[in-house]
TrEMBL record:
Region (Disordered): 1-43
Name of this chain's protein: Catalase
Taxonomic superkingdom: Bacteria
PANTHER family associated with the record: CATALASE, CATALASE-B
Keywords assigned by UniProt, alphabetized: Heme, Hydrogen peroxide, Iron, Metal-binding, Oxidoreductase, Peroxidase
Cofactor(s) needed for function: heme
SMART domains in the record: Catalase
Record's compositionally biased regions (Polar residues): 17-43
Length: 723
């Protein structure tokens, strides 16, 4: 190294600090004040299953630093899309469980705003990474704002909020090079997972097709935590919240997701916006699973564990109301970006439990908004304002909008006759549920949280064969991006605790052997804790399978808002095109004419047909199904357009419905699809490939039925088409 290339030296104190802090090697963990930390895994609670205590200065320091570690210009929030809407409860059947008026009065229509988001990516990332999706709803009720802040998966990665910064640091781009963006397929994430067996349930969901939804309008939402419903008599019931899409729960396939992110990074955002603009308003039913307080310990899992779900076969989901998204934002930044959610925004009739992840979120969300939105007055931004008047003694601060009048800003006072006064419970004043607390202050985790594998096993066993195959492929892809063999091996070893066959298939794909996990299997405990106290507990679950967990059993049949590509060129048969187009549009589908060029083509009758997209700027991954109308001239042109051949092969690879009318079958003959048919094109391998005639009235009906089926995964057994 020449003298010019030598690195410059700073002062000795700075150099020493840099050496000492690199990865903390050789040093004990400390707070930012230099206090050595004994337990970085468990927040301070009133008993193992008790509430998290505000005095936990280690938790508060860690999460406060995490919430403020990005400047606003660099990370406003996760990439999101949102819309306005309304909610109406069906009847007053919840009145015996809760006094929340918006859940008990069917005459009320509650305005709301819903925001969907990815977790790992920055604001400019693509819409369809393999990721958990945020599903947050702000209800503007007449009793104040209520926020149901959840995800499209019913369980979370971790059990205690003190580990949340570690989880996100692990999944975000690696700090030395900020690579990869919006992806979990890298060393640091899987290193964390391999040492944290509590993550296994959520990991199974993340590796499933739930992580790559077809549309934001076609994914479920979950409140994740167990909450409380409180009725007029003060009686409590436990509750879990669900959002069930009326369009069903559907996904794309992984190869398709990779291509969508390149073809249209705004795929989900555009889909939601265009559906609402067209009047095809997305709808979800709100469902609840209600558990009497006296049944809290009657399950083979802990209701307070956020890595567990209640199988619907044990506690059915009651559909109690419907959400409709019916208006797009007028200004994306002012509404979608500035909306501030918080699980602590409650109304009378809903309350918390001692779920340790939820308890930490109650601190974290307000703290985050202070940084993201500039100060304590974020509630005055129009999108965050409640529809009820605000009266309190809070004053001033950055961006204060309210001009408060009067001579007092404190309570109690006599100058303003004691106003604003405290509200009685009978007047709608909020009173926390009086749960008895009698416990020692400890940093610990309840032994009832230590079952890490029974529910991941339940989830995997409940999936269809194609869904299980996709999980295996996802693990192989993700771990294939991990370049440290010991991390891959640890994950495979953990998978053996979930399902031996799954672990073997993943191991084979990675060129590994399945080994017994090293002891201790769980590294999540304090420095002085007994490792045996934190080892997994083996539980024999009540259920072997839960059909509700498989998307095979979702709502099917409807083709509303489904995008259908018509491949056509000059000379397309006018009857073949119009009959199928009318049939599909009458069922609510959206037809897009795809041609070799933009502008217009002429049909067999000489009429101009507007082209929606040129084949050069469009891809099969952006639609749900393909139809090829007849017309000898049109088909001859399409046969000479290589991208058309690829278009069809790719759609078939992705298991989509394809229909070809009359001589359009000749186009299919020169694709790879023909390999899966007999030489006379008389045999179909599934009901999603239709070769027939539009003159047969059953032809269009069968195509509509095929599109409504969503996918034909039996094709995957036939091998992969090179598309």
């Amino acid at each position: 190294m020449t003298k010019k290339q030598e690195p410059q030296k700073g002062n000795s104190k700075t150099d020493d600090l840099n050496q000492n802090t690199e990865n903390g090697r050789g040093h004990a963990m400390t707070t930012n004040q230099g206090l050595k930390i004994n337990d970085d895994t468990n927040s301070l609670k009133a008993g193992e299953r008790g509430a998290t205590l505000l005095e936990d200065f280690i938790l508060r320091e860690k999460i406060t630093h995490f919430d403020h570690e990005r400047i606003p210009e660099r990370i406003v929030h996760a990439r999101g899309s949102g819309a306005h809407g309304v909610f109406k409860v069906y009847d007053d059947s919840l009145k015996k469980y809760t006094k929340a008026a918006f859940l008990t009065d069917p005459s009320r229509e509650t305005p709301l705003f819903t925001r969907f988001s990815t977790v790992a990516g920055f604001r400019g990332s693509a819409d369809v990474p393999r990721d958990v999706r945020g599903f947050a709803v702000k209800f503007y009720t007449e009793e104040g704002n209520y926020d149901l802040v959840g995800n499209n998966m019913p369980v979370f990665f971790i059990q205690d909020a003190i580990k949340f910064p570690d989880l996100i640091h692990a999944v975000k781009p690696e700090p030395h090079n900020e690579i990869p963006q919006a992806a979990s397929a890298h060393n640091t994430f899987w290193d964390f997972v391999s040492l944290s067996p509590e993550t296994m349930h959520n990991i199974m969901w993340l590796m499933s097709d739930r992580a790559i939804p077809r549309s934001l309008r076609m994914m479920e939402g979950f409140g994740i935590h167990t909450f409380r419903l409180i009725n007029e008599e003060g009686k409590s019931h436990f509750v879990k919240f669900h959002w069930k899409p009326l369009l069903g729960t559907h996904s794309v396939v992984w190869d398709e997701a990779l291509k969508i992110n390149g073809q249209d990074p705004d795929f989900h955002r555009r889909d939601l916006f265009e559906a609402i603009e067209s009047g095809a308003f997305p709808e979800w039913e709100l469902g609840v699973q209600i558990v009497p307080e006296e049944d809290e310990h009657n399950f083979d899992f802990d209701l307070l564990d956020p890595t567990k779900l209640i199988p619907e076969e044990i506690v059915p989901v009651q559909k109690v109301g419907k959400m409709t998204l019916n208006r797009n934002p007028q200004n994306f930044f002012a509404e979608t970006e500035q909306i501030a959610f918080h699980p602590g925004h409650l109304v009378p009739g809903i309350d918390f439990t001692n779920d340790p992840l939820l308890q930490g979120r109650l601190f974290s969300y307000t703290d985050t908004q202070l940084s993201r939105l500039g100060g304590p007055n974020f509630h005055e931004i129009p999108i965050n304002r409640p529809i009820t008047p605000i009266h309190n003694n809070q004053r001033d601060g950055i961006a204060r909008m309210e001009i408060n009048t009067g001579k007092t800003s404190y309570h109690p006072n006599s100058i303003s006759q004691g106003d604003p006064r405290q509200a009685k419970v009978s007047e709608g004043g909020f009173a926390s549920y009086q749960e008895r607390v009698d416990a020692n202050k400890v940093r610990a985790r309840s032994k009832s949280f230590m079952d890490f594998f029974s529910q991941p096993k339940l989830f995997y066993n409940s999936l269809s064969e194609p869904e299980q195959s996709h999980v295996v492929e996802a693990f192989c892809f993700e771990l294939g991006k991990v370049d440290m063999p010991e991390i891959r091996q640890r994950v495979v070893n953990l998978l053996s605790k979930v399902d031996g066959a799954l672990a073997k298939k993943v191991a084979d794909g990675l060129g590994l052997a399945v080994k017994k996990p090293e002891e201790p299997i769980n590294h999540q405990f304090g420095a002085d804790a007994n490792p045996q106290d934190y080892q997994p507990v083996k539980v024999t679950p009540t259920l072997k399978e839960s059909p509700a967990l498989s998307m095979v059993n979702t709502i099917k049949g409807s083709i509303k808002t489904r995008q259908i590509a018509f491949l056509a060129a000059d000379g397309v048969d006018s009857k073949s095109l119009s009959i199928m187009k009318d049939a599909l549009e009458s069922e609510g589908a959206v037809v897009k004419i795809i041609a070799p060029r933009s502008g217009f083509i002429k049909d067999s009758s000489g009429n101009e047909v507007k082209v929606d997209h040129s084949i050069l700027t469009f891809s099969s991954v952006l639609v749900d199904a393909i139809y090829v109308p007849s017309g000898e001239k049109s088909i001859n042109t399409l046969k000479q357009t290589p991208k058309v051949i690829h278009f069809l092969d790719e759609a078939f690879l992705h298991c989509k419905a394809i229909a070809a009318d009359d001589e359009a079958s000749e186009l299919v003959k020169i694709t790879y699809i023909a390999k899966y048919l007999n030489k006379n094109l008389e045999k179909q391998i599934d009901n999603g490939l239709l070769l027939g005639s539009i003159s047969d009235k059953n032809f269009s009906e069968n195509f509509i039925k095929a599109v409504g089926n969503h996918r034909f995964f039996e094709r995957e057994k036939e091998g992969k088409i090179p598309a």
